[in-house]
């Protein structure tokens, strides 16, 4: 006769503890996953911000040499942003591809904006009459010129170029990109997550930077504006289907859309050439 095994209370307690650990792991796993993925994404955002700081100084320096014109500043900004898009070392094809992506990102008004903070348009209009041509802010012999304030600043201050660059950096880490985007833009951002559109997601008050806009969203905005001029308005235009514009550029395999949040950087450089146009 085989003796009956007695129930061991210690064994039952160990089994219960193993089951409890599994439940605790299932509860904590989503939070742990978000923390790990969030750390990766914020590291990439920090890298983008550091690169943007350097590129903004490069853009301001080029603007100081080229009469504060926007196109040279954008080109210098693209050159400074190129390292952000490189993937390998000692590969010229990769460098050319990264330079092309940086130029596309910089010259795309939906993703990048360069704003001249100083000199202002009022300062330009007030000081240009003191130049020989009458079309530029005087740039020579500044230490001997009067410090009279015109248009809100003296001619010395008007020769300090200050620019602000806002760049919509792309969030590429899965899952957490949606979380960060929705947290940044609030409930409006949550409403546009599925379509990845940004026009309705205006930047909340108190936050730096401008809203990040998607190409297809701009098309929708133009269609809505056109509705006011077309007989029948929105009801008439809704009968047509407008295909979405591809946001991935062939050849370089770069998506100009995606989930993005704005990062901002400023730089100040003394003008080495006269400002010849109103900011």
Architecture overview:
The protein has 279 residues and is α+β, with helices and mostly antiparallel strands. It has one domain. The protein contains eight helices and five strands; from the N terminus they run H-H-H-E-H-H-E-H-H-H-E-E-E. The chain has helices spanning 9-65, 70-81, 92-107, 121-127, 155-158, 176-191, 215-227, 233-237, and strands at residues 112-118, 160-170, 248-249, 254-255, 260-270. The protein has a three-stranded antiparallel β-sheet with strand order 1-2-5. A two-stranded antiparallel ribbon has the order 3-4. Strand 3 (248-249) and strand 4 form a beta hairpin. It is elongated. Mean pLDDT is 78; it is low at 190-210.
